[in-house]
Amino acid sequence: MARLLLPYIYVAKKRSGFAVINKAVIFRTENSSNMTSDIRILMCAPKHYDVDYVINPWMEGNIHKSSHDRASEQWEGLYHILKELAIIDLVEPQQGWPDMVFAANAGVILGKVAVNSRFYHKERQGEEPYFKEWFEKQGYKVYELPKDLPFEGAGDALLDREGRWLWAGYGFRSELDSHPYIAKWLDIEVVSLQLVDDRFYHLDTCFCPLSGGYLLYYPPAFDFYSNRIIEMRVPEEKRIGIAEADAVNFACNSVNVGNKVVMNKASDELKKRLNRIGFEVIETPLTEFLKAGGAAKCLTLRTTEPVKEDMHANLPVESRTISLEGHLLDSGLINRALDVVVEGGGSFQVLNFDLGKQRQSTSKADVKVSAPSHDIMEEIVSELINLGAVNLPEDERDARLEPVVQAGVSPDDFYVTTIYPTEVRIEGQWVRVQNQRMDGAIAVTDSPSGRVVQCKLLRDLQVGDRVVVDVQGIRTPRKPEVREQKQEFSFMSGSVSSERRVELVVEQVAWELRQIRDRGGKTIVTAGPVTIHTGGGQHLAELIRDGYVQALLGGNAIAVHDIEQALMGTSLGVDMKRGVAVRGGHRHHLKTINTIRRCGSIAAAVEQGVLTRGIFYECVRNNVPFSLAGSIRDDGPLPDTEMDLIQAQADYTNLIQGADMILMLSTMLHSIGVGNMTPAGVKMVCVDINPAVVTKLSDRGSVESIGVVTDVGLFLSLLVKQLEQLTEPYKLATV
Ligand code: ARG
Q1: Which contiguous run of DSSP H or E holds residue 343?
Q2: Is the separation of the CB atoms in 536 and 716 below 8 Å?
Q3: DSSP 360
Q4: How far apart, in whole angstroms, are the C-alpha atoms of residue 703 and residue 445?
Q5: Residues 158, 253: contact at Cβ < 8 Å?
Q6: Are 532 and 711 in contact (CB under 8 A)?
Q7: By the 8 A CB rule, do 620 and 484 touch?
Q8: pTM of the prediction?
Q9: Which tens digit of pLDDT belongs to each residue from 66-123?
Q10: Environment class of 1 (CB within 10 Å of its CB; exposed 0-12, middle 13-18, buried 19+)
């Protein structure tokens, strides 16, 4: 163990009330043979301490609410206890820097090296030079982080008591990007932990390594991944997870020397737990300091930490630089991207931001992303790719391909596709991926006739295919989103409507439908049985008759209900004209199925003159293809219903090819299925009376889908009426 021999001991100037401080030094000389003389702790007297500003939630409502006398008394209480356990050094408090009392934030020390803090808040930045001066005077080699890279010292850096690694917090005060510097300068492995509860904004407020490899901590203060890291490093029997009641008393903010744990306050239960494993809890009230968000540990900086000679820097923090282009501010893209980074457990630094000068000009940002591990980096980067981010040219690499060794099973870590047009870099060339869809893998198939790069479902992967794994060499370039015209409803706004605005949407959908039909485009409808119950059947039939629908997708139910209505005037036994159940009506449903089964198919029923109106009648008459996907609850089913779901998915996929617009009418499952198969760029209108369904369906992270919360029957009737109005002047104009 390398120990630092300090050339100099700071002796506080004798001041009334602090005479005791000089005794501390005497204590050391008197006890120089005592084992405690190994351990040194730096403190700063609360001469200028007060709550002068708010930089953490504890300070809120506490400005100038702490008593100077009581604070001094409490500080001395702690001081007295600690001086029995260690040598206390003091740094001179400075007027105007009230938080300087929290010496833990001076920096972090290991062996002969000190890393000076860079405070996040300007309210504390003035403390930096005083701490630096103190470190230098003691003979430490002092390292300073680049400006604008916050790191708040031992508040966010706690040595494993065995000296095996340094636990480092980030998320509020210290930046993840500071960790590689710390690792290098202190030459120790740094384990990064993300803090997620702003009451526990420094690592030492919720995490306290104890002798013997024990750990006192408050698990909810950390994100999921960090908790996993903690669990992997500290065996269960050594982890002392505390309850919130203890955590808010700053029980984790303890000073541990040997088997003594000095803290503000602990519940009886916690004391018992610690006693049982051999620790003695010493409570000393520090309530005046809690008002500033600190307690025992914050008031101290341990300057003698065990250095393990065989431990060296090893930090998995990874960085990558990505670039984003588009209407970054107006579209909120930059915020979304940075949120992805932070919520994903990483941190970022914006290296360049070229703000577009005009309303129409796009902006460009280069962002350095750091993540505490390769896995986390992959997750973050794949989400950024999905937002349209690209690697900087110098960072560009070919996509990584791995062979499929078992048909229908991908190599692990495959990139999961989205609805966005995707390109992969193969042998230095960017290649556009075919058959874009969501939730597939990108498969590269080489054959004598050439190379195909396409989205494949896992089940379609063949031995011999190679699959894109990892996240390098993949991009989903976007056209800079066309700026939205000022209009209440537009396909560009990706919004969900309320009842009041339904008519506006209907006008727009009608306009689109007409445009698509007239230019020979393709509109697909997916419809559920509610379409019939709500009286929308006749309107949908009319749309089909008038050539507005190029394919119809649904399940067994929509067809049975439509045909029941056509044959018997009821839908699930309810008289559609009068809205009442008819006697024996519940049998209509099965009779309908039976009738069609006798005919052989829906088309056969039309040919035989059995089925003479309705949605499916119009489909057959107008050669509009349909596909009915079966399910476990289907009655019958109709001969047309495809009960092989893999086949049904394939049929849907075929019918969707080349679609311009999809109307999703009150059928959540079929619509979700369709949504997954459909690449970005296809307009989608989701109509459902349930707002949750609409939100779910129209949330494609894309601008081209709109949701309409309304009764589907009403929607269809308005739509048909609107189309008639559009057609009249149109007819006149063409005459
Ligand atoms: N008011 C101080 C701040 O917000 C409290 C610092 C507490 N120190 C600590 N190591 N947790 O910065």
Answers
A1: helix 333-343
A2: yes
A3: S
A4: 32
A5: no
A6: no
A7: no
A8: 0.65
A9: 999 999 999 999 999 999 999 999 999 999 999 999 999 999 999 999 999 999 999 9
A10: exposed
Contact of 182 with 113, CB cutoff 8 Å: no
Pocket of ligand 1 (CB under 6 A): 55-56, 99, 102, 104-105, 124, 155, 202, 204-205, 292-294, 298
* Per-residue tokens: 122: 């300007």
What are the angstrom distances between the C-alpha of 469 and each of 336, 380, 387, 444?
Answer: 24, 15, 18, 11
Whether 252 sits among the annotated catalytic residues: the reply is: no
- Tell how far the Cα of 198 is from the centroid of ligand 1, in angstroms: 12
Condensed to tens digits (0 to 9), the pLDDT of residues 678-706 reads 988 899 999 999 888 888 777 765 557 78
Q: Which of 99, 158, 195, 299 to mutate to test the pocket of ligand 1 (most atoms within 8 A of CB)?
A: 99
| Residue 257 parent element (H or E) | strand 255-257
Q: Tell me which residue of 544, 536, 546 sits closest to 665, measured CA to CA.
A: 536
Using an 8 Å Cβ cutoff, are 606 and 624 in contact? no
Q: Which tokens sit at 48?
A: 């200028």
The runs of H, that is alpha helices, within 174-297 are 178-186, 224-233, 244-247, 268-276, 287-290
Q: Which atom of ligand 1 is nearest to 119's Cα?
A: 12
Is 202 designated active site? yes
Q: What string of DSSP letters covers 269-327?
A: HHHHHHHHTT-EEEE---HHHHTTT--TGGG-EE---PPPTT---B---EEEEEEEEES
Q: Is 92 helix (H, G, I), strand (E, B) or coil?
A: coil
